[in-house]
Amino acid sequence: MGAGTDRGGHGVPAPSAAPVSAPRAAPVGALRVPGGPLLAANLKWLFTELDFERRFDAAAEAGFAGVEYADPYPYAPARLRTLLRAAGLRQVLINSPAGQPGSPERAGLACHPGRAADFRAGIERGLEYATELGAGLLHVLAGITPPDVSAERAFATYVTNIAWAVDRAHGTGVRIVVEAQNERDAPGYFLRTQARATAVVEAVGRDRAGLLLDLYHAQVTEGDLVRTLRSCLPYALHLQIADPPDRTEPGTGEIRWPRVLGALRDAGYEGWIGCEYRPARGTVAGLGWVAEVTA
Description:
Elements: E1 39-42, H1 55-61, E2 66-69, H2 77-87, E3 90-95, H3 116-133, E4 137-139, H4 151-169, E5 175-178, H5 194-204, E6 209-214, H6 215-221, H7 225-232, E7 236-241, H8 257-267, E8 273-275, H9 283-286, H10 289-292
Parallel strand pairs: 1-2, 1-8, 2-3, 3-4, 4-5, 5-6, 6-7, 7-8
Helix pairs in contact: 1-2, 3-4, 7-8
Organism: Streptomyces aurantiacus JA 4570
GO molecular function: hydroxypyruvate isomerase activity
Protein name: Putative hydroxypyruvate isomerase
């Protein structure tokens, strides 16, 4: 995406809210898994028939109470706040900045030795946006493992950088999350398994960071989602969903969603679920999955 349009200062603002891991009160009738968590619209993936700024109102009209998207940085925080307020939406999560598509930095810098200054500058910017938008979670991208760096060195670099980000976020009202991504969709991505992701959270302290548990990536890489949920939910601050093999809405692919969502409800998960999928039937028509797979 293009360069940011913000012309304001670069310091992280004073916190406006305490850290949160669960949604605040949502409007009655807000879109959610029946008897379970609220759903957040991922505005990179949903309502793509509309210009980005028009997707906020479309999400609210479809019943969403919250939104997420990877890249807020082409827009000034003030403009995004205006769009959120006008639509009555909560910003749930954003990503840390990434480099241009095709660049070595395209998926972040956290595992890149010798790039600490650039990594920290990105975290400063990410925290600035997260606090300005009221987002409780900042997903710190792991990066593509450099070809000349050993797995051991990349892991040590990554843990050091995540620990720094967690320390920097302390007191801002923002919590850091990390996400494992599958090799098919994100070739070379450093963080590929839930075991490695939870090891990172343990290394920096699970009271200070958490998982962004993407069930699509987990299914493609490992399968056995009910077992994955049971082992990973104690670490999870946010979930995302899509159905393999085509990353479409639940009910269009291989996952047994009634069983998976039942396990999620049984575990008492209270965070948000981000709808990060490519609608096979159009965004609004595709939302029929909420009733279809939970009936």
